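Q: How do we represent a protein-ligand complex in a form that can be generated token by token?
A: Start from the inputs.
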Amino acid sequence: MTAPCPPRWHRLLLTGAAGALGRVLRPRLAAHCSVLRLSDIAPLGSAAPGEELRPAALEDKAATTALLEGVDAALHFGGISTEQPFEAVLPANVLGTFHVYEGARLHGVRRVVFASSNHVTGFHERSRTVGPLDPPRPDGYYGISKACGESLAQFYFDRWGIETVSLRIGSCFAEPRDRRMLATWLSHDDLGRLVLAALAAPAVGHTVVYGVGANRDTWWDDAAARRIGFVPRDGSERFRAAVEAREPPEDPSSAAAQRQGGGFVALGPF
Ligand code: NAI
Ligand code: 15L
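Then emit the structure tokens for the protein with NAI bound:
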């Protein structure tokens, strides 16, 4: 009988662990670390063997910086995940991400995987293929907050040598929910593979990658994702017939249909 491989990391931190993607990652990370430290402001359930529950609000600097003590790497998935007034987004996403990086600096953590978003570039036209080197064109306050998070990641690498892979995740759901998501969808299993690649890739500095599946149509350059070793296995095509039967065609004259961010580009004012 082959002995199981020892886990690659001793302790990993996952913020946003009670959220949709946190719940996807929690079981997928278990085999890869001896201790999985889980944090959120929402209830985390009970700890499984090898799990540490550490509730914290990202706005709370002392509590959030303390989360980083003794961890090998942090997966920062906590925060506001939808378009909301800037007054709501700013403390959770900008101050909160600053606190995660300060914790990394104070406690010598060398690697962060940051859940950024495709909404950093959501105002680009769908007719373009956009890559990490193209200018950000956030499609709202949420996208602006993720662009700030990426700037924090770049600064903490340039100033302190803390490496980050910023994941501009497309639409990570069990299935694509609308016609736009046929191009932006990322399966839960591919998210797990992407996060493990981002943790393990050597010498990433600050690397920005789009997190998108093997979909027929795409608006994003996937070369950087391939460079960190991520190759998606799931594509949206098997859902196309059902999505197109269920969802009316987008109005081609609308901004939402023309821009990559979809409906986010037309939300507000709040
Ligand atoms: P979610 O909203 O389900 O989970 C976010 C979690 O963060 C929640 O459990 C919430 O309680 C926690 N949180 C919110 N404010 C907080 C605060 N002030 N302090 C501590 N915890 C706080 O979102 P989801 O879908 O799980 O997304 C996870 C991350 O991935 C988010 O950062 C989101 O912006 C990003 N993302 C998700 C995409 C998706 O398709 N699900 C696409 C692109 C990015
Ligand atoms: C995101 O950034 C959101 O967190 C998620 O809920 C989806 O709206 C996704 O983008 C998307 O663009 O579909």
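Strands lie at 9-15, 33-39, 51-53, 73-76, 111-117, 163-169, 171-172, 185-186, 206-211. Residues 150 and 185 are 21 Å apart (CA to CA).
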